[in-house]
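<tokenise_the_fold>
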Amino acid sequence: MFAAERRQLILEMVRANGAVSLRELARVVQTSEVTVRRDVRALEAEGLLDRRHGGAVLPGGFTRESGFPQKSHLATAEKTAIADLAANFVEEGEAIVVGAGTTTQELARRLARIPGLTVVTNSLLVAQALAHANRVEVVMTGGTLRGSNYALVGSGAEQSLQGLRVSRAFLSGSGLTAERGLSTSNMLSASVDRALVQAAAEVVVLADHTKLGTDTMFQTVPTDVITRLITDEPPAHDDRAGTELQALADQGVQIAVAGASGSPGGEAVPARRQQRRDVPLPAPRRGQMPGAGAGTGLRAAAVLGEQAPGAERARVADMRRR
């Protein structure tokens, strides 16, 4: 494929999806990430797109929200690995909330195997994934259906969450930075996500590396409220994603890294029911909700062991860039 054809295809993908990782672009145009990076730089010089931390986005500063059909085909291997690891942080008989998103949908498919769960959600996709799980009770919020991501939003959804208390919330979003925390491109979705957070003692964010360092319009979860981030291993060349992870860890966010199958440098996803090792937790961070688990940040030249409650130790990677 000639350079002009590659660049046109790259541009069409970014316009269709809003944001696309270099890894995904390289896969679609069937070339190396090094070549794709050169193409992206050339398109950026023409003002046709912007480079962002291991990917490309529409020009204009903030990415727009992609629809479900587009998002469901992005970073699929990474989302699968993140969901596998996230399921290890859920105990039998627990009550949790799960927000809307393609990554949380992957998590829901794994939660169907954990008995005695109560899952509160505003996502039709999450509810559908759990619909035939006989040992899982699904509680849906009220609200108005937002067709682009199959989620219930609005005052009805927020009011149905008042007075609710669960052990932890699993949320995704459009972007994550150490400065602002988790954010999304839609005001109604952000408002419901904030209500989900208020119902939980701990907040677990599921975000693949393409979302690290991306800032979108509406903040959903401030950094000092995030207990844990579950992500995938950024590519070796993506220094800014590594820097963002270190900044999040420095603010007390626990970082758990899952390895996508076949990706360079990926960590293996641990099997359930391995021997646990408990790690003492420090005092709660400033701004952390009562009852929330305190975070232990990554430190230079250290790899911190992290234990999933009631399950095996989760492997937590040292994100210090050497």
